[in-house]
# Entry
Amino acid sequence: MRRWLMVLAMVMLILSTGLGLTKGQIVPVQRNILYVHVPNSIGALLCFVALLIASVAYLITDRPIYDLVAAASAEVGTVLATILNATGMIFSRAEWNVWWTPSPRLVSSALLWFLYVVYLILRTSLPGSYRRRARVCAVFGIIAFLDVPMVYISARFIPDIHRPDFSFESAWQTAALVLSLSGTLVLAGVLLWLRTDVLRRRLELESQLHR
Amino acid sequence: MFYLSLAFGGAWVCHLVYLLIIDRQVREMTRRSQAHGESPGSQETQ
# Structure
């Protein structure tokens, strides 16, 4: 099942790249970066929403599976946020001739990436029992999530070089973006599933060894 | 075109590297589970 979903995601991503660079091409050419930048940013934000829900669920129920889902969401979200920031910088260089500019959305996106890197470092470096570490990380995950709405609203309510939205000229361009978004979300979902499974089995093995 | 290739190539490399890392972890967990005599029903990975 997961293998087929992975293949489906890859096919969708390859098709969207082909479509985006041929029939759905945007002029000037560097603006086609949005076919990879936008899906990864939406994927990253959804991973962080999953992290928030899992963290709250863990604090309420104390069930380890929610902590594992939170950890996997943070990892996958950080990978997608890395792509979001990297492609954003490449676009900025191509479009505005600067790698970085202190605009509200760029700063809040970079801050988001740092917060989740700190979350991942906390998970591996906090001393104490599993339960204590999981609870501290859940609280940190909830606090870190406060930056996610900032990323979304920053370009809408504060004057910013980053455009808050975009419109397409042809249906091919919309199709390429929808295909790319679907492929990225399926890929992120499968990665989340696999990583949660790995963490769950590792926890089971460790508890067997300590028995 | 250079920047476009850099963005698409970088994103694909990131996805594939992370995918390979998780694939290795799944194989490693399967191997360890088998070594500890886990029941066959819980060894399904993909």
